[in-house]
Design a protein that fits this description.
Length: 304
């Protein structure tokens, strides 16, 4: 018994300094992020999780933010859940008619009515170039309340899509829709969603791999991935409206994959320039988080 107690005590002595060091390190990352956000003319929420160790931090992570197109990740997950259940197939046909076309991001709005594509085509367009018309076509297949139910099943009660894109009249929660726009979520819930995708627990290992492959194709390079070093990859989704800019996903590096979500609201600068302050802020946080958890990688090329 004495030998067992001595071994247990030795184990505690060995482990506790490591835990204290990890906590101190995370505190240092928090200070760096707080320094980056200091003086920003808007509200910033950040959530981070090291997917290798479970280390995490949250700054306004539990607060709700307008999601803009970031909410399309929840639509993708609900869609793939239906595919997993066998209620639809990725190769099921969709037909876009003229009245389906809506503005904003995407290419389908510029194409002719009667165009045929598949569910998978529409999902890829929704994620890779944030196509609004493709999103609405998918919401005809997967109702908004179905998306809500799937998010609830994953423990994400604040992650909600309100309506089809550019069609406020279709809202299933008008008061929240007026306040937040297309959708609402929190940085912490979005990091949880990406964590579940990484673990193969959002839908299934097979379907989650499909989702992450689409998210790796995201063509928005102005925010979170902007200053990552060569060789770094990410599976992420962004979202832009006038006063809110967001980018969330998984950063992959040689030492650890990291789930990161940066959301903003009440931004003073509402321009859509490449160097919008929100874009630069998210880029700096992305580079800092990547560098912190991947010290063996080349340093991010952050301009002075």
């Amino acid at each position: 018994m004495r030998l067992r107690l001595a071994c247990f005590a030795a184990l505690l002595i060995a482990v506790l300094p490591l835990q204290a060091t990890a906590q101190a390190d995370i505190a240092g990352l928090r200070r760096s992020i707080e320094q980056i956000t200091r003086g920003y003319e808007g509200v910033v929420g950040v959530s981070v999780r090291n997917l290798a160790t479970g280390e995490s931090l949250s700054i306004r992570g539990a607060e709700t933010f307008p999601s803009a197109s970031l909410i399309k990740v929840s639509v993708l997950v609900a869609l793939l859940d239906e595919v997993e259940r066998g209620t639809m197939r990725l190769d099921d046909p969709l037909t876009m008619i003229a009245r389906d076309r809506v503005g904003g991001s995407g290419v389908l709005q510029h194409l002719h009515g009667g165009l045929q594509l598949t569910v998978e085509d529409a999902a890829r367009l929704m994620i890779i170039i944030s196509d609004n018309t493709a999103t609405n076509l998918l919401l005809d297949k997967v109702p908004m309340r179905t998306v809500w139910a799937k998010m609830d099943s994953l423990g994400l009660p604040h992650t909600r899509i309100h309506s089809k894109t550019f069609l406020r009249s279709t809202s299933v929660a008008m008061d929240s829709s007026v306040k937040y726009g297309l959708g609402v979520t929190t940085p912490d819930e979005t990091v949880r969603l990406f964590t579940l995708l990484h673990q193969g627990r959002a839908v299934s290992p097979r379907m989650d791999s499909v989702a992450l492959a689409m998210l790796r194709g995201n063509e928005d390079w102005n925010k979170m991935v902007r200053w990552l070093p060569d060789g770094a990859t990410a599976a992420h989704k962004s979202g832009d409206v006038d006063q809110s800019r967001n980018d969330c996903g998984i950063l992959y590096g040689p030492d650890a994959p990291v789930a990161l979500c940066v959301m903003t609201r009440e931004n003073r600068d509402t321009s859509y320039a490449t160097d919008n302050p929100a874009n630069l802020l998210i880029a700096r946080i992305g580079a800092e988080v990547y560098r912190f958890f991947n010290p063996s990688a080349p340093p991010p090329p952050i301009p002075r």
